[in-house]
Amino acid sequence: DEFDYPFEFLLRSGRAVMIPALSGTLERGPTPEFPPENQERERALRWFKDMGRAVDYLETRPDIDVGKLGIFGLSLGAIHSVRIVALDARFKVSLMSSGGLVPGAPPVTDEWNYAPHVRIPVLMQNGRHDFVTPYETSSKPLFDALGTSPEQKVLRLYDGGHGDIVTRPEAIGEMLNWLDKYLGPVAN
Questions:
Q1: 3-state secondary structure of 70
Q2: Residues paired with 127 in a beta bridge
Q3: Measured between alpha carbons, how far is 175 from 169 in angstroms, rounded to an integer?
Q4: What is the per-residue pLDDT across 72-109, written as a single tens digit (0 to 9) for each?
Q5: Whole-prediction pTM value?
Q6: In 10, 17, 47, 124, which residue has its Cα 20 to 30 A from 182's Cα atom?
Q7: 43: how many CB neighbours lie within 10 A of its CB?
Q8: What letter does residue 148 receive in the DSSP assignment?
Q9: 181 and 152 in contact (C-beta within 8 Å)?
Q10: Average pLDDT, the chain
Q11: CA–CA gap between residue 13 and residue 77 (Å, rounded)
C-alpha cells in the first residue's frame, strides 16, 4: 500500500505495473542506501538477476505484452535503471525521475560506465532545485552520456526538488505521452 502513490498514475492510465521486491528492498530488506564497494557490487548483481527473473515471469503471462516493456525509476531507482536497461534489451523505453550520477560509485556499478550502452528512448525528469542529483553536476552529465540518439531522449527540468516530480501533473502527463509515443497507447 505504501508504494501505490508514485506509480498510481501508471495504473490509472491503464498500464500494467510490476514492482519487484529486489534483494534488500521492501520485504527483502533493509539494506543500506549506499553500501561499501564490495557490497554494492554484489547488490547490483542481485538486482539485475532479480529484475531479469521478474521480466522472465512477465513473459509467461498471456495478458502482458513484453514487447512493450518500459521501466520507471524514481531517485535511486532511476540511477540503477541505467545499468538495467543497458544490459537487458527487453526494455523498450525508460522513464527516469530525479536520477543522475552518484559521486564515488564503484566503477563496476557506476552508471557513467553503462550510460553509453543505453540505446532506448529515455525521458529524464529532474527538479530544478534538486540537491541530491543537481542539474550541472549529476543529471545533465548522465543525460549527455546516454547512448540514446538525441531525438529519442529528453531531459526536462521542473520547479521543485528531489523526488517530487510525480506530484506535478505536467510531468505525469509528459511521462504518459512518452509511453504512448514509444509503446503505443493503452488498448481499451
A1: strand
A2: 158
A3: 10
A4: 998 888 998 999 999 999 999 999 999 999 887 888 88
A5: 0.90
A6: 47
A7: 19
A8: S
A9: no
A10: 89
A11: 21
